[in-house]
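Why do we bother with holo predictions? Because pocket geometry can differ from the apo form. Keep that in mind while you read this record for shikimate-3-phosphate.
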Amino acid sequence: MFSTEFLDIPPLTEAAGTVRLPGSKSISNRVLLLAALASGTTTVHDLLDSDDTRVMLTALAQLGCRIEQGDGTLRITGLGGKLSTPQAKLFMGNAGTAMRPLTAALSLLGGDFELSGVPRMHERPIGDLVDALTQLGCHIDYLGNPGYPPLRIHPVTLQSLHLDAPIRVRGDVSSQFLTALLMALPLASYRDITIDVVGELISKPYIEITLNLLARFGIHVRREGWQRFTIPAGSQYQSPGEIHVEADASSASYFIALGAIASEGLRIEGVGAESIQGDIRFVEAAAQMGARIQSGPNWLQVSRGAWPLKAITLDCNHIPDAAMTLAVMALYADGPTTLTNIASWRVKETDRIDAMANELAKLGAKVEAGPDFIRVFPLPADGWRAASIKTYDDHRVAMCFSLAAFNPASIPVRVLDPHCVAKTFPDYFETLFSVVKPLSVPVICIDGPTASGKGTLAVEVAHELGYHYLDSGALYRVTGLAMRRAGLDADPAHETQIADLARTLPLRFDAGKAMLAGEDVTDAIRSEAAGMDASRVSALPAVRAALTELQISFRRLPGLVADGRDMGTVIFPDAPLKVFLTASAAQRAERRHKQLISKGISTTLDSLRSDLEARDLRDSSRSVAPLKPAEDARRLDNSTLSIEQSVDQVLNWWQQAQPFQAAPTKASP
Ligand SMILES: O=C(O)C1=C[C@@H](OP(=O)(O)O)[C@@H](O)[C@H](O)C1
Ligand SMILES: C=C(OP(=O)(O)O)C(=O)O
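The structure, written out:
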């Protein structure tokens, strides 16, 4: 997951391969709640692990459910309709699928609860649900604005509820109110319970998910159209024992769009023609726009058909979440695309009609919007502008705007606060990057002499940008270590053997650790002797050649920060930013001295300094790739700079090389 302030997506050209998507949010949170209300244990396979499911799980654990993580499964032991904890303060984040259904269930379970969420959750309506529950005899107070969370739920007894008349609930703001009642009312079904929907029900396919899962838990709701629903007397939740969560069809929309825009064949696994999720009907919309789609029970295969895409006008009430993806696809269409009947967009993670209109306009598009529609005009190749896309803490805004990186103007796209995808798809960008081909992957090279602080600087810069990190020095150090262990010496007579070793090094970097054939060699390669060996093996041309390919393979999306001695001159000569980092020998000796002392290794400043100078001389005078700044490198002497100042300087240089206006600061996101 990217927790950076922003993520720059380089211009992308095509997509190919296979993605396996995480579990459906809507199914996951329903299954968790139903399993919690049932008695017995339910083993859930392929549950989504994201912010929305975590708030649900935390709440259920607080209420006394036993939750055990297994290998790819989660076992949840239900309450059997009885609370073991009658009082709790529960935090719902921004998960509508937790807030609304738990409000209904807890109102009937007879405890004393406070339910709150993030500030935006406190702006998302819940009044229609509270009204329905109040009619029934439940006792709920608003702790902030009437009609909105946070809520206080007071205990009532099931016998005191008024179940004789139909319960009336409005269906035109969110279908989650009806879902919440349908999932909770079996708790009180000592007689038939009827729910009448007032107003036109929106987002109907989500009710089908609810009914489908209720049936799997033994509750068979009768319905008359979308107007009247009856929970039969004597209904009891029965755990199905095992249940599988299909992949998220709304999450699939970004990859279906990806296939339509840029692929000769992209396979999506985990969700397909037999999905119980309404958002699977996004495939029809994408096909109308020109995508070629084949499907099987739980897979989809998508490729580009018509190009440019075909503009459409579509009532999107049945696919409110996936429809946002169409608004970005519309940029690649042959005319204006109009999405109608989407008033609910205004009360979701953000006002999505405004958000989409604002951000599409930043890319250069003409957009028209009204209370319940959006019209997006396509962008000609010369109309695209570089934009920092604000995401409003809305996962879908972040995910669908990544598709703008296929623009024909080859402009990168900056997505602010990419972390918001954690709501439903924490690894969205990693998954995207695994199947797309960029025009080029940006690299920042940081070269410099030993102990100049380039490792610390490079790690920090990589961290700020969400880029990969290559410690090329470590490759040489590990080669030196492997050489010693093989009983070889760093002399030309052993050059071929050492190069062979280097070529097949079983090395990986894992959370800052260097692992050689599974052994943590991080400390072993940091000794002064290992440094000397590294310097010696690095002077052998065959070894350098063997390691070149390995180093180049680190150049992966979204970008790379590489530190070493010849990153800018030899390995990545086309890097858009090269920094040559220096510090006086006295300064470097002092830093290294402190480092060694802190590790309990005793040494003297003088000996360190003369070692450093000897090493500088050897590194800068070797015949192959000597240590010298690339011609186009920026020099940074950090003798008197703090680490933060050096990092800021490099990030400023990087920002200057970008087409975006200015990097956001932590103070003003
Ligand atoms: O019940 C559900 O799982 C959902 C219902 C929909 O909300 P509305 O009914 O408010 O449109 C949808 O947007 C949301 O992401 C999930
Ligand atoms: C509207 C959404 O979420 P929620 O379940 O919080 O309503 C969404 O995921 O797009």
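Residues 94-97, 321, 348-349, 396, 424 surround phosphoenolpyruvate (ligand 2) (CB under 6 Å).
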